[in-house]
Amino acid sequence: MASTRLFIMLAVAAAAVVAQAAEPVPTRITATQSAPLAADANRLDAAQLQALDMEQARIWGLTVAEIQRARVLMQPGTARAAFSSPNLSPIEALGIHAGSDAERRRYAELFVRAVHADTERVLAWMASYATTYARLYPNEPALDFKGQKLPRSVIAP
C-alpha cells in the first residue's frame, strides 16, 4: 500500500513537472510549446513568423496579437525573460503581465484547463506504464525503496 501511495505521489509530481501544455478539448492545446524567442523569430521571414504565430494562437487558444505580445515579453534582455524559465508558456507570460483582474482570470482559466488536461494524460500514461511493467516484469517491483532512507517529505501523506 505504501509503495502504491509513493507511486501515485511520484506520478502526481511528474504531472506537475510536465504540465506546461495540454490537449484539452476546450483549450485546444496539443503540445508543450512556448512563444518563440526573439532569436528564433529573427531567423524566420515574415510569412513563416505569421504562420507560426497563427499555429501558436490555435494551440494555446489565444489570438495572434496575444502570441506576439507574449514573444515581446519573453525577449532576451527583458525583465520577464530574466526572471522566468525559457519554457514559460505564452499563457503564463500574459497572465503575469495581465492588465486587469478579468484578463488575469481568463489566462488563469486557460492555464488551469491546460494543466488539468495534461495531468489526466500523464496519469493515464503512468497507469499504462504500470500495467505494462507488471505484465513484462511480474516478479520485479517497479519501485523498490526497501532499505533506502527517504526524506520524510517523500513518504509522508
Radius of gyration: 20 Å
Uncertain residue ranges: 1-39
What's the average pLDDT?
A: 77
Task: Classify the secondary structure makeup into a structural class.
Answer: mainly alpha
Oligomer: single chain
The tally of domains stands at 1
SSE succession: HHHHHHHH
Structure, described:
With 157 residues, the chain is mostly helical. The protein has one domain. The chain contains 8 helices and no strands. α3 packs across α4 (64-73), α4 (64-73) crosses α6 and α6 (90-96) runs antiparallel to α7 (101-136). Residues 1-39 have low confidence and may be disordered.
Provide a concise account of the structure shown.
This protein is mainly alpha-helical.
Write the layout of secondary structure elements.
Elements: H1 2-18, H2 38-42, H3 46-60, H4 64-73, H5 79-83, H6 90-96, H7 101-136, H8 152-155
Task: Quickly list its features.
single chain, 157 residues, mainly alpha, 8 helices, disordered N terminus
